[in-house]
Automatic annotation (TrEMBL), chains A, B:
The keyword Thylakoid does not apply. GO terms for molecular function: DNA binding; DNA-binding transcription factor activity. This is Transcriptional regulator, GntR family. PROSITE patterns: HTH_GNTR (PS50949). It holds the Pfam family GntR. Residues 16-83 form the HTH gntR-type domain.
Length: 233, 233
DNA sequence: GTTGACAGATTGTCTGCGAATCTGACAAAG
DNA sequence: CTTTGTCAGATTCGCAGACAATCTGTCAAC
């Protein structure tokens, strides 16, 4: 019967709670660098700045803690997570593995629709790479990774990758800031989409891994020289 | 200077907070089946049964929620997570991928010490498989997976696998309950340890994947027939 | 049988409070 | 001058109580 489009009526049951909004706010604040790695996050400050009670703040912090975005020590409170060079390396290693998996599965089982979406995502990123709108660059690239993860059809891999991406944006070592890296990056992800569209799992996996490994090299180099982590003061 | 063994003096900074103890309790309660999938977890009940205030309960629940052990809907409260057959399938797919990664990396970079630990873990599991102490069986097998994950030397993979294992124990579809599966299981993990000890990454990875895929077959079959999930009533 | 209203249960959130704990400063002792 | 001891301030930890918002089932009315 007329239930073909029924699910579109769903009201966003989510976001109804204050806590989840606080959570999103804090996540964005951390990602955007408002709070820097190593910096303390003091309950009462957050209460005032966000305008909610301690309950909501504390519960939101527990979630971020579980996600690895903040670390908290008993009786000292939470601080924004920071990473050693070795941890950054490991982060990229596992990310390469997981995105490689996505590429492979996508090429194997991806729907025609998902593939079209992926290609559009690459095109959008390409266009953004021509201009110099940093905002658009990040957004289109994030979208590409979202589509890539989605296409693999595995909710757990999506969750894990989201978690990894959050920690990477926190690092603020965008490999795209490296001169000459941007066009190369475009080429790489186009290779990925082409391999997936062609339905070649091994090539897609290899392309994904290659892409992340290249990004990792730049990121680790930056992490070593910059040393903007810690943020002791 | 005499700092060679200094770190052993560290006091367990952890576990100082009530919240973390509540968290562990609940995790265990869920894993042991005290709370079944689909069952509601009512704050005040938990307060009484555990003997702590609502604050601690709620914050612990937020962590478990982030781990995927419980799901909560606004104004309805948290329920123990339950999984569709498709989700179980996906769970094992990604688990195979991650443990395969562990096997490969372990074989590549594992220390002599870690390898010895791994072999001891296999022996312990083998011995447990001879007896019929269900408790020991689970414990030794869990230990084996811990050592395997540890040996890969990647903290993120360890985290992710822990998360997956937690959800699987919640499922209570121990593939070991299948008649004949146990000795086969022992053989499989011995193959893993042998490949790692021999330093053969590809073979180790394949053995890991094979092992999980076999377990998955049994688990999914059980999940389909049993249907003890949902627990609507 | 459908609709509507109502009551009970439960969660979401805020607030005040006291205890426990960490931290840095400052004085006392060597 | 360095080490040690003490103390006060800041902050988290956890509890209890309160109230609004929301969900759920029931039961009467149509």
């Amino acid at each position: 019967m007329g239930d073909s489009k029924a699910q579109n009526l769903q009201i966003p049951r989510r976001s109804a709670t204050l806590r989840s909004m606080v959570e999103d706010n804090l996540r964005k604040a951390i990602a955007s660098g408002t709070f820097k790695p190593g910096q303390r996050m003091i309950e009462r400050d957050l209460c005032e700045r966000i305008g909610v009670g301690r309950t909501s703040i504390r519960e939101a912090l527990r979630q971020l803690e579980a996600e690895g975005l903040v670390v908290s020590y008993p009786h000292k409170g939470p601080v924004v997570a920071s990473f050693s060079a070795e941890e950054v390396r490991q982060l990229y290693v596992i990310r390469a593995e997981l995105e490689g998996f996505c590429g492979r599965e996508f090429a194997r089982h991806g729907s025609r629709e998902d593939i079209a979406k992926l290609i559009r995502a690459v095109d959008a990123f390409d266009r953004a790479a021509q201009g110099d709108d940093q905002e658009a660059l990040i957004e289109t690239k994030t979208h590409f990774y979202d589509v890539l993860a989605q296409g693999a059809g595995n909710i757990y891999v999506t969750q894990f990758l989201t978690s990894l991406h959050n920690r990477i944006t926190l690092l603020r070592v965008s490999s795209m800031r490296q001169p000459g890296r941007l066009p190369e990056s475009v080429r790489e992800i186009r290779l990925i989409s082409e391999a997936i569209a062609a339905g070649e799992p091994e090539r897609a996996e290899a392309a994904c891994k290659q892409h992340i490994e290249n990004a990792a090299r730049v990121a680790i180099a930056q992490a070593l020289t910059g040393q903007s982590n810690d943020a002791e003061e």
